[in-house]
Design goal:
This protein has four helices and ten strands; from the N terminus they run ββββαββαββααββ. Strands 1, 2, 3, 4, 5, 6, 7 and 8 form an eight-stranded mixed beta sheet that branches. It has a two-stranded antiparallel ribbon with strand order 9-10. With about 270 residues, the protein is of the alpha/beta class.
């Protein structure tokens, strides 16, 4: 999941391999079976329990739940503001979602995904979807060199669903698979990437960069789990933190980074974290 640091109508034709569910911070063999839990969605059918060839339907939180991250916030441009200029972030919502339609198409190639935003969050679904599409298609993202392609849809089934939701709704959906997101972090449960509204709107106190970059990190980290990648840690002082690192808990000498690849096309890896 990251971290702390950022989510469809064609069907993905992919094979689902049987493998144990693993949860951030837990022994894979001790994790409970995942449930693709979803709340009601406007103008949309339920997601099919599909996953990528590298990642069976399962769950992973982002980041680990050993301790709660600090909660210092950053202002979010383009959102309603409360005292001090910080965005107004409702702690809970109705549990219903609106599907993003702008940019979606019934035809296309690659992994079909859908973007949904919980009602009452103040986040525009179409604007969020446009940003997410940019992250998924970026040369430094998982689309690197055509390795993965993504296709946004708005109706029917999708193998990946990115859902921006309040902390309470995120906790509820993630919690159905035994994951404790304690009102602060994101998770990936089966086909659902659950993005905590608080993280989407305020970023992370550990991430030194624009909010848009932190949102890219959220998406890259959680979609990375969906693609089968596990957690990694800092490879060395002064080097870029891997996108699969739980950067919300500290950089351990690395430099904040949102992308799986560098500008030369090299994967930014680090030692694996079990």
């Amino acid at each position: 999941m990251l971290v702390a640091v950022l989510v469809p109508t064609a069907v993905i034709c992919i094979a689902v391999a049987a493998a144990p569910l693993w949860t951030d911070g837990d022994d894979p063999s001790a994790a409970a079976a995942a449930s693709a839990a979803s709340g009601p969605v406007k103008d949309s059918t339920d997601s099919a329990p599909a996953s990528s060839p590298r990642s069976p339907a399962g769950a992973s939180t982002e980041p680990k739940v050993r301790a709660k991250p600090r909660t210092k916030t950053k202002p979010s441009s383009g959102s309603s503001s409360g005292p001090g200029g910080h965005p107004v972030i409702p702690p809970s919502g109705p549990g219903t979602f609106t599907v993003a339609r702008a940019g979606a198409s019934d035809t296309g190639k690659g992994n079909a995904y859908r973007v949904e935003v919980e009602d009452g969050t103040g986040v525009d679904p179409d604007k969020a979807a446009a940003q997410i599409a940019g992250f998924l298609a970026a040369p430094r993202g998982w689309a690197h060199g055509g390795e993965h392609t993504f296709h946004q849809v708005a109706k029917g089934t999708a193998g990946l669903v990115v859902r921006i939701a309040t902390a309470a709704t995120t906790d509820r959906i993630c919690g159905k698979s035994g994951l404790d997101t304690h009102g602060e972090v994101n998770c990936r449960v089966g086909v659902d990437v659950m993005v905590n509204l608080k993280r989407w709107q305020t970023g992370s106190p550990e991430f030194d960069g624009p909010l848009a970059d932190y949102r890219a990190l959220i998406i890259n980290h959680e979609v990375g789990h969906w693609l089968g990648h596990g957690h990694e840690t800092c490879p060395g002082k002064g080097r870029p933190a891997p996108a699969m690192m739980q950067q919300i808990y500290g950089l351990k000498g690395c430099v904040a980074n949102a992308w799986p690849y560098d500008t030369k096309g090299h994967y930014l890896s680090g030692p694996s974290v079990s």
